[in-house]
Amino acid sequence: MKLAAIDIGSNAARLLITDVRMIKKNKPEFIKSNLIRVPLRLGFDVFETGEISPDKTAHILSTMKAYRHLLDAYEVQAVKACATSAMRDARNGLQIIEQVAKETGLQIEIISGDREAALIYESHVAENLTQDAAYLYIDVGGGSTELTCFVNGEMNFKRSFNIGTIRLLKQQVAEAQWEEMKTYIRSNTRNIKTTIGIGSGGNINKIFSLSKRKEGRPLSLELLRDYYKEFSSMTLTERMSNYKLREDRADVIVPALLIYINVLKWAGAEEILVPKIGLADGLIQNLYEEIREQG
After folding, report:
1. Using CA atoms, how far apart are residues 23 and 188, in angstroms rounded to an integer?
2. pLDDT tens sequence across 73-82
3. Closest CA to 212 of 265, 259, 274
């Protein structure tokens, strides 16, 4: 079975196409066929003006039309499409979604921050990890950060904060918002002996690639601090040149590191695992479960 997910974030849109096949004991195996990322950068409009500009609207439409052609070419049987923080905040978000549906047949759902957090951990990473520690999922996007914590395999808390990389670049995160996040994390992790972070999002994946760590090995909080210090001391052009980063990654990677560092520090976590999962992976899992339940 071929399934697909579309995630329209504040920084980029992603189309994930996945093959699902049954392995022994009737367990599904998810094999990625393709991932196509387009840097729409909606947050740069929305977090400043409150709406998506005509230029960006045209870019969304051309991207969704291209995705529609790819879905047809790959003979995808079902697709789930969601939009997050920027589309949530945009005054004209619903209008654009209606236009996309009319021109491509794609139905996009605007999801809440809490729903986003729930979908990310549906990738079931913590199920395969030791029960001795608490696991804190940290998904950093352009408009928001989603946190979900598991203790002994049970969800302890989930919360979405309007602290994201583009909002930070636009200097639209107040000190009070950081304080609220700090207080919330500290009070909810106070009695936990060991917390390990699980990071998702393009920025932490890029840091993991740059670190040359073996898959499955964690990154230390100290290493993230080193990268933050190094990147902060460079200009955007230097980051792009020295680390072969695209511009739409080189600008957001610094505020992303700041968010990961703060969350880990406040949770008392010394390391973070980077399993290369994201909202699109959770959407695929969710879509598969829906299809299975319908029989």
Report:
1. 38
2. 999 999 999 9
3. 274
- In 3D space, the residue among 283, 226, 255 whose CA is nearest the CA of residue 83 turns out to be 283
Angle (deg, nearest 10), helices 113-121 and 279-294: 80
- Rounded CA-CA distance 39/37 in Å is 7
pTM > 0.85: yes or no: yes
Amino acid at 256: A
Distances (CA, A) of 12 to 3, 60, 231: 20, 10, 21
Q: CB-based contacts of 45: which residues, under 8 Å, 6+ apart?
A: 51, 52, 53, 56, 86, 90
- 3-state secondary structure string, the chain? CEEEEEEECCCCEEEEEEEEEEEHHHEEEEEEEEEEEECCCCHHHHHHHCCCCHHHHHHHHHHHHHHHHHHHHCCCCEEEEEECHHHHHCCCHHHHHHHHHHHHCCCEEECCHHHHHHHHHCCCCHHHCCCCCEEEEEEECCCCEEEEEEECCEEEEEEEECCCHHHHHCCCCCHHHHHHHHHHHHHHHCCCCCEEEEEECHHHHHHHHHHCCCCCCCEEHHHHHHHHHHHHCCCHHHHHHHHCCCHHHHCCHHHHHHHHHHHHHHHCCCEEECCCCCHHHHHHHHHHHHHHHHC
Total Cβ atoms within 10 A of residue 89 = 21
Longest dimension (CA), the chain: 55
Q: Do the Cβ atoms of 136 and 151 come closer than 8 Å?
A: no
| φ and ψ at residue 190, rounded to 5 degrees | -55, -40
**pLDDT mean over 8-31:** 90
% residues pLDDT > 90 (the chain): 78
